[in-house]
Design goal:
With about 170 residues, this protein is mainly alpha-helical. Helices cover about 90% and strands about 0% of the residues. The radius of gyration is 54 Å and the shape is rod-shaped. The protein starts with a helix and ends with a helix. The model has no long low-confidence stretch (mean pLDDT about 80).
Length: about 170
């Protein structure tokens, strides 16, 4: 009986050693489990979307941006046209002023010779002083009228530009 007991004890010890060895193996395998779960975990760095979803997103962006772009383009076009009209009006004004300056430079010499001839003829007559004064008044009136005509032409051009501007805005 002692023999049978000792063989049972030996068998039990062998089973315990086998069990301890299995526990050690499982422990070493399970001990590394948190690292393995992290390594094996799938991480999406880029999300894949189907092509129709991308096309819908692109179309919605296009629908959202297109009116704004069209509005900005119309504003810039109007501004460029306004600046072009302003440039034209400034050039016309410059030409008018240059014309006035050249007329003023030419008029005194031409008017003095005409005035001198007329004054010479007027001095030959009986009322030389009165005719000379009347001639000066007429020359001054002529210059005032010429200036008024130039001013009215400039106003007419300005109104034409404003009319074109209002027609373009409509």
């Amino acid at each position: 009986m002692a023999d049978s007991l000792s063989s049972s004890v030996a068998s039990l010890r062998t089973s315990l050693q086998l069990l301890e060895s299995s526990i050690d193996i499982l422990d070493s395998g399970v001990n590394d489990f948190p690292r393995l779960s992290k390594v094996l975990q799938t991480t999406r760095h880029f999300e894949l979307l189907p092509e129709p979803t991308l096309q819908e997103a692109q179309q919605s962006l296009l629908d959202e941006i297109t009116p704004s772009i069209a509005h900005l383009l119309s504003i810039t076009t109007n501004h460029v046209e306004r600046l072009a009209r302003r440039e034209d009006s400034l050039r016309a004004k410059c030409q008018l002023q240059e014309g006035r300056l050249s007329d003023k430079r030419q008029l005194p010499s031409a008017n003095t010779t005409t005035t001198q001839k007329t004054l010479g003829a007027a001095t030959r007559g009986s009322d030389a002083g009165a005719k000379a004064a009347q001639l000066r008044r007429l020359v001054q009136k002529k210059e005032r009228l010429k200036y008024a005509v130039d001013r009215l032409e400039l106003q007419s051009k300005q109104k034409e530009r404003e009319l074109r501007k209002s027609m373009a805005a409509q």
